[in-house]
Amino acid sequence: MRDAMLGLAAVLMMGWAALPARAQQAPPADGIRTEAPVVVQGEQPGPGMWIVRKGDHDLYLLGTLSPLPAKMQWQAVPLQRVLANAQEVIRMRGVQIDADVGFFRGLLLLPKLLGARDNPDGKTLREVVSPASYERWQGLKARYIGNDGGVEKRRPLFAAQELYTAAMKKNGLDTRDPVWPVVEKAIKEHHPTVTVVKETIVIKDPKPLLQEWSKTTLDDLACFDNTLARIETDLDAMRARANAWATGDIPALRALPPAYQWEACSAAVTEAGIGKRLGFGDARAKLRAKWLAAAEAALEKNAVSFAALPLNDLLGANGYLAALQAKGYAVIAPDDDGGEEE
Known about the structure:
two-stranded parallel sheet; alpha/beta; signal
């Protein structure tokens, strides 16, 4: 429960034109594609790691991705070697909620735990989304979820999440994180220092919040429509990204368009009155500053350190790698021959 994740990691977008021709084809008129099961299986090496360097001190960074091939067995030997020599592991735990119903991660998990995932006033999806969106939903639901009447009562945000998870499973993809179990095992074996980076929002009394949730209409229609569109059109690219991560094909990860990001879904809660009142936006900014401070401290004192971050947080003009490079650290990409990241 406390490790429940919201967001899905993205990769650096280098252009739609780089997609294979099959992935660029427009979806059929009914909005549903039929794809061959081409996700890789068996033993796979996974991606290389970025290195942030200060003198003879190295911080190894692994970019994570979701979804990944469900039947992949990740052979994480390079990571295990790094972890065997690491003096410190930086673990990103994100923004967490501390309430008397338990300690858990992510604002979106709060209504789930409090039983507030359904639409206010007993409304159904048919009543709160547009007729066109509901028609698309029905087709995708029939294909991936089936006859589940309960999901029809969900707020669009949570209905979209259930559909997404079901669609990934039907397409040979898995949203679980394979990285942390490997890291956790190495921590138990080698005992590095573990620095946990998190920002905690404390809710002393969740009952009034539950009452507010039960009456609040979220601005989550964009989340719903975006998720439907991704499932209709992006499955080929999802498999290509998953395969590229599994096989360690960094150029392909760079060339493919970004993985689905949940900004519209997250904003439906974080930009609502509840999210703003709890200070979720400020918490995310504080979290970024804390992680960068932890990375700099690790580079100052350790010969070898390790951290993992979603690729969408790691890469790009506003990513953590760019921030560290702007501070004067050398950044070496896994597909470089010793050169610096551009």
